[in-house]
Amino acid sequence: MTEAVHTTPEADNPHGATEARFARRPSALLNSIVLVIAILFGCIAMEVALRVIFAHSLDFSMEMWKYAVKLKRPVANPDLSFAHAPNRSAFLMGVPVSINSEGLRDREFSLEKPPGVYRVMMLGDSTTLGWGVRQEDTAAKLLERKLNEALPPGFNHVEVINTGVGNYDTVQEVTYYETIGWKYHPDLVVLVFFINDPEPVPVEKKGFLIDRSYLIAFATNRIDGVMRHVGVRPDWKTYYASLYDDDRPGFQACKKALISLAASTRSHDAKLLVAILPELHQINGDSYPFRPAHRKIKDVMTAENVSVLELIDGLKDHGPEETLWVTALDDHPNAKANNLISDQLEQWILENTGKH
């Protein structure tokens, strides 16, 4: 007996079999499209979440990114690189930050100095700007109030102008004074020198996504933190100390700028004070690790007959170092530290005003 052979339509039609298999499973292209859409929606969800989380945060890296995006703008002068955008405001590191029409975190000042006014101009970076403290708690404004309560001899009012910009180094601070700052005719210029000031002039990174995406900013900051944690990048002590190697172009540019500022202030009949602000991690007792770096800056200024004030002397031994920080993870000077800084500046000014 011959057995019956059962066939299916697909067996009779090999092309039909192929079509059926494709009908039963999605194509690779469709899978890819679904994956891309899922990733896109995931990124959008993370972007929205990060915007909510960091709307009013105390995360140093994210707040610095927001500061650069919201309050800075590039400028043509390569020795300045960037400046504050006039008439902008933002809420950063727990406090409001407002920039006036001249790009300063301060009230408005006339270029022409009023009669009887003793005018102080403070040059510096984010520590002078007052990162993480209210405007009234910056060293500049505390100093202004104190000097108006105990006026320098021969004056009836004091103005202290805060020109601090976050991430500025010495070259930028001096460039600001020599191109703009001198027009305010200060009697005294105080350059607040910080340990990282010999860094090369930074360039703010700009771009459509870099300026807008919290997700990209967050990922970039965390990757940088991991690299430092695992030792791919040097720890803070090694890095800061290395900035003062004599063969570093940044250090040579820093010294050149300081010498230029000494000459510029003399030509404008203004007194110059370099106030060295210590890195606040390890200042108590005699354990401060950067005294050799401070000495190099003092030697440059001494050769130019410029006064130097070591602010560490009035900051150390006022409790644990972290009581002077904005947060436990951000060692910018807080209101307490700014008050101690202003005390030292006030004392120096009252002791040296009128002396030549």
Order of helices and strands: HHHHEEEEEHHEHEHHHEHEHEEH
Structural class: alpha/beta
State the CATH architecture of the largest domain: 3-Layer(aba) Sandwich
The helix fraction, in percent, is: 40-55%
CATH class group of the largest domain: Alpha Beta
Q: Quickly count the domains.
A: 2
Side by side, the strands of the main sheet go 6-5-7-8-9
Strand content: 5-15%
The CATH superfamily of the largest domain is: SGNH hydrolase
Report the oligomer: single chain
Q: Which geometry do the CA atoms define?
A: globular
If you compute it from the alpha carbons, what radius of gyration comes out, rounded to the nearest whole angstrom?
29 Å
The rounded distance between the terminal residues' Cα atoms is 128 Å
What does the largest sheet look like?
5 strands, parallel
Kindly identify the CATH topology of the largest domain. Rossmann fold
